[in-house]
UniProtKB/TrEMBL annotation:
GO molecular function, one term: catalytic activity
The protein, known as: NHLP leader peptide family natural product
């Protein structure tokens, strides 16, 4: 099983090297991951891909622990 950081880095590296994959990742990220890496995400998971410009930075705020949804609840995905 790949760690989340390693997998994320592999996806980013592939997007930098393969313009077709990058475009597919931006338009249909679930399909891009499945086609290129064999990673299937469940239908109840939404995946969004954005491309940062050199003068942008995105800060992702995860669900609050008080919400009852913890990232560890997703470990059954075995990939992401």
């Amino acid at each position: 099983m790949l760690s989340e950081a390693i997998l994320r880095n592999q996806v980013i590296q592939k997007a930098w090297e393969d313009p077709g994959f990058k475009q597919r990742l931006l338009t249909d990220p679930k399909a891009a991951l499945q086609e290129a890496l064999g990673i299937e995400l469940p239908d109840n998971i939404t995946l969004r891909t954005v491309e940062e410009a050199s003068n942008e930075f995105y800060l992702v705020i995860p669900p609050s622990p008080a919400s009852g949804v913890m990232k560890t609840d997703l470990t059954t995905l075995s990939t992401w």
